[in-house]
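Amino acids appear as letters; backbone shape is given numerically. Here is one record.
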Amino acid sequence: MATFLLLFSGGGMPQSEAETKKVMDAWTAWMGKHKDAITDPGNPFTPVAKTITKEGKVTDGPVGEPASGYTVIKADSLDKAIEIAKGCPVFLGGAKISLYETFDAMAMAEQGVRGASRN
């Protein structure tokens, strides 16, 4: 089972109580349908972002397109993750999703240490 980050960009918040209810109902239904896959339901982001370089320079704004929120899921394959993402209610607000597969760097490092100690 792999872990995937759904990184949202663009879109907007509902403008009326009726829109808010529609969107929240959609999120509740989507999260209920995929409760076994969602490991972190995430949150929307504020527009505040900073870019920080390895030299410690800090500038206003993100690297690239501003992100507007995220959700983390687990899926058996990239195709399954895409299927889950396609139903995400973030599209109701006009957002797009960038889907990233993650890996457990600490587990890999630990395996490397264990493998090296066997030699």
Remarks:
- The longest strand covers residues 2-10.
- The chain has three helices and six strands.
